[in-house]
Amino acid sequence: MTLAAFNQLETAEAVEYVRPCADIPRWIEAVVTSRPYSNVEEVLSVAGTRAVDWTPDEVDGALGHHPRIGERASGSSAEAGMSRAEQAGVDASDDGLESELLAGNREYEERFGRIFLIRAAGRTGREILDELRRRLRNTDEDEAREVARQLREIALLRLEGILRS
């Protein structure tokens, strides 16, 4: 979608384009109601600024739309398609990696009570596994900040992808 087309969408339609980036209603509203934008960088600046103050509850709510690392998202939703593309670096044919990610996901969920979220785009499966292991040593507070940061990175990459497609 071009930026010009995004700027011209009805509010409800624009919301549906932004929602797959991060399903945080307050953030979506800020991104949509700040239109029109003069360039994609301006959209990303507004989106990034408005994502800094996401609450832990908002982040946890948005995590419900993300599959576990190493699991392929099913369905035809925009979120599922984005997730599949982002996790392309996780080699599904590497049984050792798959089992290590599964075990790491389980340990992470037991430790922190949420799924492990990472910006997978541009990372290999081994890099993701190394990050998972590193983050298991985080304090609860550090990990909450890390999850929010990762969600922001994902949201901005997704938004940029929508506006530059």
From TrEMBL:
<dbReference type="InterPro" id="IPR018020">
    <property type="entry name" value="OHCU_decarboxylase"/>
</dbReference>
<keyword id="KW-0659">Purine metabolism</keyword>
<dbReference type="InterPro" id="IPR036778">
    <property type="entry name" value="OHCU_decarboxylase_sf"/>
</dbReference>
<dbReference type="GO" id="GO:0051997">
    <property type="term" value="F:2-oxo-4-hydroxy-4-carboxy-5-ureidoimidazoline decarboxylase activity"/>
</dbReference>
<keyword id="KW-0210">Decarboxylase</keyword>
<feature type="domain" description="Oxo-4-hydroxy-4-carboxy-5-ureidoimidazoline decarboxylase">
    <location>
        <begin position="7"/>
        <end position="160"/>
    </location>
</feature>
<feature type="region of interest" description="Disordered">
    <location>
        <begin position="57"/>
        <end position="96"/>
    </location>
</feature>
<dbReference type="InterPro" id="IPR017595">
    <property type="entry name" value="OHCU_decarboxylase-2"/>
</dbReference>
<dbReference type="GO" id="GO:0006144">
    <property type="term" value="P:purine nucleobase metabolic process"/>
</dbReference>
<keyword id="KW-0456">Lyase</keyword>
<comment type="pathway">
    <text>Purine metabolism; urate degradation; (S)-allantoin from urate: step 3/3.</text>
</comment>
<dbReference type="GO" id="GO:0019628">
    <property type="term" value="P:urate catabolic process"/>
</dbReference>
<dbReference type="Pfam" id="PF09349">
    <property type="entry name" value="OHCU_decarbox"/>
</dbReference>
<protein>
    <recommendedName>
        <fullName>2-oxo-4-hydroxy-4-carboxy-5-ureidoimidazoline decarboxylase</fullName>
        <ecNumber>4.1.1.97</ecNumber>
    </recommendedName>
</protein>
